[in-house]
Amino acid sequence: MQVLTKRYPKNCLLTVMDRYSAAVRNMEQVVMIPSLLRDVQLSGHRGSVQEGAPDLYTYFTMLKTICVEVEHGLLPREEWQAKVASGEPSNPENEASEAEEADEERLAGELDLEAQFYRHFSSLHHILTHLTRKAQEVTRKYQEMTGQVL
């Protein structure tokens, strides 16, 4: 398990980012054969498996990709939009959501910057905490599958 070397306040965004990066690095070190994660579902509350939920391999690759972006920065907006557009065919729902996003951006420009910052900061904090837990769950599940449970 990776140990945090930097000391920041508990709820500092840098602490949450470091925890996430450490959890993903630990996951990468433990999961030696990622293909074993294919078609294995992460059990939800009380051991139930959610229908249509992604498999552990999908979580593994998603968590690694997000970690790279957290550590090295985002793609430029145009490249990110092109990547998303190439992965999903255009449909009316996407166009409607894009129109909603444009409306939200217009409204966001009218909001107080401090309020916007707090909303995005708390959302990012929540998302990174959730992703950290997912990385720990993938690691734990892989260890159970391979008999490495401590």
Number of strands: 0
Shape, principal axes of CA atoms: globular
Helicity, in percent? 55-70%
Mean pLDDT: 80
Computed Rg: 18 Å
Alpha plus pi helix count: 5
Distance N to C terminus? 12 Å
Which segments are poorly predicted (pLDDT under 50) over 5 or more consecutive residues? none
The main pleated sheet reads as: none
β-strand percent reads under 5%
Q: Strand pairing plus helix content: what structural class? A: mainly alpha
Describe the structure using short key phrases.
mainly alpha; 5 helices; single chain; 66% helix; 150 residues
Question: How would you describe this protein?
Answer:
It is found in: Cytoplasm; Nucleus. Residues 82-105 are annotated as: Disordered. Keywords: Cytoplasm, Nucleus. The protein is mostly helical and 150 residues long. Helix content is 66%, strand content 0%. It contains five helices and no strands. Helix 1 runs parallel beside helix 5 and helix 2 packs across helix 5. The longest helix has 34 residues, at 113-146. The protein is globular, with a radius of gyration of 18 Å. 14% of the residues are buried.
Can you give me a brief rundown of this structure?
It contains five helices and no strands.
Write the layout of secondary structure elements.
Blueprint: H1 13-30, H2 56-72, H3 77-87, H4 92-110, H5 113-146
Helix pairs in contact: 1-2, 1-5, 2-5
